[in-house]
Amino acid sequence: MAATFDITPLRSLCAVAGTGGVHRAAQSLALTQSAVSQHLRRLEREAGTRLVTRNGRGIALTPDGEALLSHARAILAAHDAAVARFDTAQRDTVVIGAAQNSAAVILPMMMTSLRQRFPGTEVRFHLDRNATVRSLLDSGGIDVAVTTRVAPELAARTAGFRLRWLWSANHPQPDPAEAMPIVAFSPPCTLRQPSFDAFSGSPGGWRVAAEVNDLATGLEAARAGVGAMLVPVLDRAPDGLVGLAASPVPPAVQLGVAYTDRTAAGVREAVTQVLGEYLGADRVEMLHNHSFPMPA
Asked: What's the distance, CA 130 to chain centroid?
């Protein structure tokens, strides 16, 4: 019998890739960790191959996992757009798209607050690349998109929500006189060019050590000592990672709450207010989707 990939396990795979682990993926989907793990195993049975690898608390996608992830995103985008078009019950559902490079930071704080603000409404999250969630917003697949924007006009922070260069906690720090190995998202990505610019003036310059399509694989590469990665953080570094010693000061980062003419005013305002309460009002900006520049 031919393999069949169901929507729910595919959604779990995308959530794991977007948040960097099973625990945060389960939180974003309002599921148990056991349920998300079972979904991954089910996909592996259907695919007939390993899709994820585990290292302590970390998780990364195998090459087959990355291939399935690409298909899963396309399938879910089409599915969610179809539901939005034909399911009248969608009026009682709010779908928030979030860029995966900041999803692990923002999701835990948003879930409880938003569900309290919209009682009787199902609040769902769609985690993906910045460009993808922006496209889904235009097509009506999601109600609002939370995206990441580098904001050099703001003062850089040393605490709270900020960008931080991360390195493996279990490998020696790199020699600053040599080219800095960088783990970078494949384009388009908001943080790609700032990652390269940071070391352009250093003695050794920089090199791309790994190019990844999802956060989980990028963090796993950094844990393995493959390279340094520029990542939004809140209170602490992800497990197995520490700050990169003597790294350039990263630029300030801001979250953009993008909306369209279809977005209910109460939804966009609630998302902006919740994020501002946790991150600081100056770190959150609400604009029409057409006003936000697309990531390069």
From this structure: 8
State which H helix or E strand residue 206 sits in: strand 206-212
- pLDDT tens, residue by residue, 200-213: 988 889 999 999 98
Alpha carbon distance 228, 226 (integer Å): 7
Per CATH, which fold does 1-86 belong to?
Arc Repressor Mutant, subunit A (1.10.10)
Tokens 């989707």 sit on residue: 289
Contact 230, 198 (CB under 8 A): yes
Give the separation between CA 180 and CA 219, rounded to whole angstroms: 16
Chain segment 65-83, per-residue pLDDT in tens: 888 988 988 888 888 777 7
Which of 292, 232, 284 lies closest to 258, judged by CA? 292
CB 44 within 8 A of CB 154: no
Q: How far is CA 291 from the centre of its chain?
A: 21
pLDDT tens digits, 124-167: 888 888 888 888 898 888 999 999 889 989 998 888 899 999 99
Spatial CB neighbours of 6, under 8 Å, sequence gap ≥ 6? 42
What's the fold here for domain 162-251?
Answer: D-Maltodextrin-Binding Protein; domain 2 (3.40.190)
Q: Which residue has the higher pLDDT, 17 or 86?
A: 17
Nearest CA among 274, 291, 296 for reference residue 283 = 274
Structure confidence at residue 275 (pLDDT): 93
